[in-house]
């Protein structure tokens, strides 16, 4: 394992930022920390970098205990959401700075800087100062510095959050490939489930300072082991409703019922929590197994080619996402269609029992 946490926790004053955690990151893997703001992503990264000392536990890197080792002695590079560059250094000097500190020969520095500048489309700007560039270009300088350093551990803390949409999409595609070529172990923090799915690799979901699940990104998305993981890995958060399994049927109060099929058929009769992601609760039936639900509109959001409807269903607030522009007024009656093929069922301890 490249990096390992053993019973790591972090307490700052009276606040518990990270609860006791065990996690192993393999060498050369692209890992994602997915969680809402204040879920513990940055604290976890600061522990990995050596910027914070854990309250309990030990941190190992390549089998060596580095718990008390300073960040300067670790082979780590970190890129923040707020780009940090030397304002009086040219772009070239910014990128070259970690190599100069290492004492690398000028010819080797030139080769390394020019290679990474070409990758990140910074070559025409190498002699300019950071404040002469756009925000996106300045963030690319920070990324270039992390790449050229060839650190064994690279920590990216929401590095694309402040970039324009087009550049963000381009870099999302490029980043896994760029760092895969270096062989570094990468940890990428994000609040966006869609970004985690685009980046792939392995994802750890965080909720209130705890890792709720860690595994291949697509697997965590398709099979969230708990309600907490399911809501973290859904944007908007997964809809949840009290459900009952009885006599071969699943029912949600008086709102809807349907035959229990597949994994749901073998569930014991009893009370459960049903989960459905907003894009599987739509304004039109998209499958033969869709079930109609009567709802009352509370709010409609129109974003580009998508409509998000907040509606009251049997006293609960649900969110529906559908393609196309669908305008409703608060109080309108609306028919929603629940795709039963994409439901999740959780037991009384909030653990997944069927999907």
Descriptive account of the structure:
- The protein is of the alpha+beta class and 355 residues long.
- It folds into 2 domains: 3-232, 3-Layer(aba) Sandwich (Rossmann fold), CATH 3.40.50; 239-354, OB fold (Dihydrolipoamide Acetyltransferase, E2P), CATH 2.40.50.140.
- It is built from 8 helices and 21 strands.
- The strands form 4 sheets. The chain has a 6-stranded mixed β-sheet, with helices on both faces. It has a 6-stranded antiparallel β-sheet with strand order 13-12-11-14-20-21.
- Helix 3 crosses helix 4 (135-149).
- The model has no long low-confidence stretch (mean pLDDT 93).
Task: Summarize the topology.
Blueprint: E1 3-12, E2 15-25, E3 30-34, H1 41-49, E4 56-61, E5 64-65, E6 76-79, H2 91-101, H3 106-119, H4 135-149, E7 153-157, H5 165-180, E8 185-190, H6 193-199, E9 202-207, E10 210-216, H7 217-222, H8 227-232, E11 239-246, E12 249-252, E13 256-259, E14 270-276, E15 281-282, E16 290-303, E17 306-313, E18 316-323, E19 333-339, E20 344-346, E21 352-354
Parallel strand pairs: 3-8, 3-9, 6-7, 7-8
Antiparallel strand pairs: 1-2, 1-4, 4-5, 9-10, 11-12, 11-14, 12-13, 14-20, 15-19, 16-17, 16-19, 17-18, 20-21
């Amino acid at each position: 394992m490249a990096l390992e946490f053993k019973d790591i926790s972090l307490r700052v004053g009276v606040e518990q930022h990270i609860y006791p955690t065990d996690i192993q990151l393999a060498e050369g893997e692209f890992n994602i920390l997915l969680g809402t703001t204040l879920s513990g992503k940055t604290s976890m990264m600061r522990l990995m970098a050596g910027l914070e000392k854990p309250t309990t536990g030990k941190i190992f890197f390549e089998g060596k205990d580095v718990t008390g080792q300073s960040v300067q002695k670790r082979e780590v590079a970190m890129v923040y959401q707020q780009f940090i560059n030397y304002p009086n250094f040219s772009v070239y000097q910014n990128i070259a700075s970690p190599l100069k500190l290492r004492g690398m020969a000028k010819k080797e520095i030139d080769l390394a800087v020019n290679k990474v500048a070409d990758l990140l489309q910074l070559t025409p700007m190498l002699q300019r100062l950071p404040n002469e560039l756009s925000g996106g270009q300045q963030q690319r300088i920070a990324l270039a510095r992390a790449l050229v350093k060839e650190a064994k551990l690279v920590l990216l803390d929401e590095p694309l959050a402040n970039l324009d949409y087009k550049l963000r999409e381009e870099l999302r595609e490029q980043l896994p490939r760029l760092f895969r070529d270096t062989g570094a172990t990468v940890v990428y923090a994000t609040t966006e489930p869609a970004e985690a799915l685009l980046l792939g690799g392995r994802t750890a979901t965080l909720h209130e300072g705890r890792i709720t699940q860690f595994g291949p990104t697509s697997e965590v998305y398709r099979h969230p082991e708990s309600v907490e993981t399911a809501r973290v890995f859904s944007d908007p958060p997964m809809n949840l409703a009290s459900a009952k399994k009885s006599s071969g049927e699943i029912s949600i109060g008086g709102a809807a019922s349907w035959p229990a099929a597949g994994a749901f058929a073998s569930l014991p009769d009893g009370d459960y929590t049903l989960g459905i992601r907003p894009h599987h609760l739509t304004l039109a039936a998209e499958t033969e197994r869709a079930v109609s639900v009567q709802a009352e509109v509370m709010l409609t959001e129109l974003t580009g080619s998508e409509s998000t409807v907040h509606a009251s269903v049997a006293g609960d607030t649900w969110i529906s996402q559908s393609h196309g522009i669908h305008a409703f007024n608060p109080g309108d009656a609306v028919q929603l269609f629940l795709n039963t093929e994409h439901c999740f069922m959780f037991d009384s301890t909030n653990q997944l029992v069927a999907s």
